[in-house]
Amino acid sequence: MSEIPPVLTVTAISTIGAADVHDENADSWVVIETAEQGQLLLNLPGPLYDAAVQATRLPADQPGPGRLALTDDEIAAYRAHIAALSDADRGA
User: Fold this and answer.
1) Which residues 6+ apart lie within 8 Å of 53 measured at CB?
2) If you average pLDDT over residues 60-86, what whole number do you get?
3) How far is residue 58's CA from residue 44's CA, in Å, rounded to a whole number?
4) What is the reported pTM?
């Protein structure tokens, strides 16, 4: 990771579902609404839909199909960035 990517604040989300409900590897589609960019249509090919669902429950360093397993340094950098954003929101 060379730099922290831009932050998007998700305000709403809707699952469109798999393109082919009989194919577990079919692409899934999700619409997210962000404060910064409005609505975005995301194509989540194959196992990425499951990885997105699991991402809210699994540790950031846990590998798996479609999962971005972060290093300890990346996790620390993201946590520091999030803390700075939170401090700025609180006016610290």
Assistant:
1) none
2) 88
3) 18
4) 0.66
The enclosing H or E element of 88 equals helix 72-90
In the numeric block, the tokens 């429950």 are attached to 57
d(CA 7, CA 13) in angstroms, rounded, equals 16
Contact 30, 45 (CB under 8 A): no
SS3 label, residue 92:
coil
Average pLDDT over the chain, rounded to an integer: 84
Q: How far apart are CA 2 and CA 39, in angstroms?
A: 27
pLDDT band at 72 (very low <50, low <70, confident <90, very high): very high
